[in-house]
Specification:
By secondary structure, the protein is α+β, with helices and mostly antiparallel strands. Helix content is about 45%, strand content about 25%.
């Protein structure tokens, strides 16, 4: 007998399940007693339990977590850790034991110890000693840490969500099976994508096997894996792509052929589609997902028809979109425009350095020739993710991290980093590491008002680089969950990161500029690493090149002649091109990236957008209040400047696309600058209808670019994970992120309209009412375009998902919130069809508040939820302090506009 039934269980429902099965005339009742999601067995304190050690052990299998109960042992590289197993071993035995509620170890040799709390080291003589928590015990080849000790414990089921993107926990079902007076309880664990081995029980003479999980289905053919290939980005462990070389075997149809399956390239045979899903950790096996969907073509045709219908809304003659355009023509509101006054500001910061004047340390720091440093910026380096980029890019990233500036003491980032590498003795005395926190300054020993500190000031003994003053506080802050860290903790960790970056520059370990010959992963090494790891002949070449370059720098600084240094640098460049030719980027790409760094387009644009936007907005209000105000020529000038800004914005996106090799909307920073671009485009579309719309667009774009350059947004150009390398993704993300620009414009127009409500009085009521109706019509048109783009973008997302994983919809957080956003804006746009529910005031309010769903879809999912779209790691960051204040201001504006909500 065989019984199968689908179960739909959840932590938030009652999960009732009862069935009666009849087997050979005997009735067996099955009842679900309890359900536990994200279940796993863990050691839990239990008065009736036995002692248990939770260890982190470095052994033959690498670092691994193990739990030892009495009678068990774990074998490391050169020792065995034994808990009363009474067995004999060939290796030395470190015996662990329990006396009362204390843990002890007995070692036959001297162990090295390291306290993870104080970072103090010590030698532990052989013999019996208390076994302390958070202490690393080391032999010659092994190490172990006692993570947890429970004097009395038992393994029990607990519910703990699995960590990491898309990690699936197990469900635990406690079932009772009964027949007559016979009754048995059983716990089964299972999850999606796993086949449970099942539990066997007996009810009298009836033997039952019960399992929970996915059902195994037999294929009418076989697939054999011939080879699995994993390519990583050069010099990193990040996968660039992975593929399975398989052979399909179908004896029934006498078919046999080879095929290569990789991400977004599927094997389709007899209606079965095989997708590259994952791979085993040892890289010896592959994981393929399979689906069979005869309706794929019908679904795609349906998507196409829906997309045609959605875009048809924008062009059909009798549609709402066209009707809104006609309404705008009928409104006799004079177009407002504005003049533009742009103030170009050059902001310089004077950093506190010890006695600038003729200080020899400062003189040494400024002695690096700028022209030579720019040539140094053309060298190629490899970052930790494997991206090949010019040294100029890394220099900008380093100085931005340390000092939040592009220049320092009048020196370019290349001059600064070159100086830090070659004269660390001078640079570590210069206050260049930004602190900006009174408490941190106290810990370091600086005045409370100090903004920067020298590297040497972070250490009690700067000559030995020991006695790190922030060590204990940093350790405490690191152990806190991100959501529980206060302002001081966050500032402390940021400063600690800057200190570590500075140290890595001083030691050269951050500058991976030497390609490893014939390395299968195309890894590049830092100087010291290259000298230690390369073959003697290659290491000698690197040594001569490095010494020759460093020596020529010293000569140049004394003589002022940098020609020999230029020649030495050219020799390193030649070595890079020859040995690292397989991953060396083209000269054109290097030049474009350096130009991109120097121009810094997006950071330069946001204040310009702000100035234009606020100026236009103010003058638009003046025009509404004082109709005789003349501004035609100002409108043309401001519009022309915005065209120039938009052209620069477009050029910046194009340069970033060329540099990275993928569309510039693959991470948070890139999607923000793209949304800003789409917002300006939306403004141009409606600019002929209303200058105020263009003003709102410019302000919003400036705000978006400003947010993109806050500390928590990373502007680095990065590599793509394999699943994102798809043309379907490019179109899908482009349409959805573009929709955010139109929906954001609607929100800002809603805010401006509410402000117009507040400004109404008997004298200007007629003019403002017309302006409100005009802006609301433009607002609705913008929302319609945004909703069309968002909806069609989601259709394309379904196509991408089906081509990548074999499913259209998986209730991923991003998918779910995108659907919520579509439904929210569908309600907003169709609110006019609900009698008594629509007015100009209500529409302004809901168009503003509806943008909250976009913010949740974009920020909430990307930074707070784990899924296929977010690639989130670790705990979510705390909600920024300005968020509740922003919504408080919005609530006040809505309340103030309420009393003047009537329009005719």
């Amino acid at each position: 007998y065989d019984f199968k039934e689908n179960l739909f269980l959840s932590k938030r429902t009652s999960n009732a399940f009862e069935r009666t099965l009849e087997i050979d005339g005997e009735q067996i009742h099955v009842n679900l007693d309890s359900y536990m999601g994200d279940a796993r067995y863990e050691a839990v304190a239990d008065p009736k339990g036995e002692p248990l050690f939770n260890l982190m052990v470095t052994g033959a299998q690498g670092a691994q977590q193990v739990s030892l109960k009495k009678g068990e042992f774990i074998e490391a590289n050169d020792v065995v850790i034994d808990f009363d197993s009474n067995k004999t071993f060939d290796k030395p035995v470190i015996a662990i034991s329990v006396e009362g509620d204390k843990a002890y170890l007995n070692a036959p040799m001297t162990l090295a110890t390291l306290s993870m709390d104080t970072q103090k080291t010590a030698a532990l003589n052989g013999g019996k000693h208390p076994m302390t928590l958070r202490t690393l015990f080391q032999t010659a080849q092994s190490g172990f840490v006692l993570r947890e000790f429970l004097p009395k414990a038992s393994m029990q089921l607990v519910s703990k969500p699995a960590k990491g993107p898309m990690m699936q926990g197990h469900d635990a079902l406690t079932l009772t099976l009964s027949s007559g007076d016979k009754k048995e309880s059983v716990v089964v664990l299972g999850s999606v994508g796993e086949v449970d081995e099942g539990k066997k029980i007996a009810l009298g003479d009836t033997h039952i096997e019960i399992a929970y999980g996915s059902i195994e289905r037999k294929l009418p053919f076989a697939i054999a894996l011939r080879d699995f290939e994993l390519e990583r980005y050069p010099g990193s462990m990040s996968p660039a792509s992975y593929a399975s070389e398989v052979t399909l075997l179908d004896p029934a149809n006498q078919e046999k052929f080879d095929f290569r399956i990789y991400m977004n390239h599927i094997l389709d045979y007899q209606g079965f589609r095989f997708f590259q899903s994952s791979y085993d950790q040892d890289e010896m096996g592959t994981v393929l997902s399979v689906n069979r969907d005869p309706g794929t073509l019908i679904t795609y045709i349906g998507y196409l028809l829906l997309a045609i219908g959605m875009f048809g809304v924008l062009i059909v003659k009798n549609g709402r979109f066209n009707a809104l355009g006609e309404k705008l023509k009928s409104l006799d509101v004079k177009k407002t425009a504005a003049s533009l006054a742009i103030i170009l500001m050059t902001l310089g910061t004077t950093d506190s350095i010890a006695a600038e004047g003729e200080n020899p340390v400062i003189k040494t720091a400024k002695g690096f020739d700028k022209a030579h440093a720019e040539q140094f910026g053309h060298l190629i380096v490899q970052d930790s993710s494997g991206r090949m980029k010019p040294m100029d890019t890394l220099s900008h990233e380093i100085l931005a991290k340390l000092n939040r500036n592009d220049t320092f003491m009048g020196l370019s980032s290349n001059q600064v980093v070159l100086g830090m590498m070659l004269r660390p003795d001078a640079w570590r005395e210069i206050a260049m590491i930004r602190t900006g926190d009174k408490e941190i300054n106290k810990l370091i020993g600086l005045p409370e008002s100090a903004k920067t500190a020298a590297f040497s000031q972070f250490f009690e003994f700067p000559d030995e680089i020991s006695g790190y003053k922030l060590a204990q506080m940093v350790d405490e802050a690191t152990r806190k969950a991100p959501g529980k860290r206060d302002k001081f903790d966050k500032a402390l960790l940021q400063v600690d990161e800057r200190v570590n970056v500075a140290y890595m520059v001083y030691t050269g370990s951050l500058i991976r500029m030497w390609p490893k010959p014939a390395d299968k992963n195309h890894k590049w090494d830092a100087t010291i690493e290259a000298l230690q790891s390369l073959a003697p002949k290659e290491a000698e070449i690197v040594r001569l090149l490095a010494i020759g370059y460093f020596g020529s720098i010293d000569e140049a600084m004394q003589s002022g002649d940098w020609s020999k240094a230029d020649e030495a640098l050219a020799r390193i460049d030649k070595y890079q091109r020859f040995v690292g030719a397989s991953v060396y980027p083209s000269d054109t790409k290097v030049k474009v990236e350096i130009l991109y760094n120097k121009v810094n387009i997006f950071e330069q644009l946001w204040p310009l957008y702000f100035v234009v936007g606020f100026t236009l907005l103010i003058l638009s209000f003046i025009k509404i209040i004082k109709p005789t105000f003349r501004e035609a020529w100002l409108s043309k000038v401001s519009f022309g400047l915005l065209v120039l800004f938009f052209a620069a914005h477009t050029a910046g996106l194009a340069m970033r696309w060329y540099i990275s090799g993928h569309a510039p909307w693959s991470n948070g920073y890139e999607s923000m600058i793209y949304i800003g671009w789409a917002s300006v485009l939306a403004g141009f579309i409606f600019s002929r209808r209303s200058v105020m719309t263009m003003a709102a667009t410019a302000i919003m774009t400036g705000l978006i670019l400003f947010v993109a350059h806050l500390n928590w947004m990373d502007p680095q150009v990065t590599n793509l994970v394999p699943v994102l390398q798809s043309y379907w993704l490019t179109i899908h993300v482009a349409m959805i992120t573009a929709s955010y620009g139109f929906l954001g414009l609607g929100a800002l127009l809603g805010m401006i309209t509410l402000i117009l409500f507040i400004l109404k009085n008997p004298a200007n009521s007629d003019r403002l009412n017309l302006a409100i109706k005009e802006l609301n019509a433009i607002n609705e048109m913008s929302l319609i375009i945004g909703l069309v783009l968002l909806t069609v973008g989601n259709f394309l997302g379904g196509v991408w998902a089906n081509e990548s994983w074999g499913r259209y919809w998986g209730w991923d957080p991003k998918e779910t919130w995108a659907l919520v956003t579509i439904l929210v804006y569908a309600v907003v746009i169709h609110l006019r069809m609900i009698k008594g529910a629509y007015s100009d005031y209500i529409f302004s309010v809901v168009s503003l508040l509806a943008f909250t769903s976009v913010l949740m879809t974009y920020f909430g999912v990307n930074y707070y939820l784990a899924g296929l779209h977010s690639y989130a790691k670790g705990d979510p960051v705390p909600v920024p302090d300005f968020v509740p204040w922003t919504y408080a201001v919005i609530a006040i504006i809505i309340a103030m506009a309420y009393s003047k909500r009537a329009t005719r």
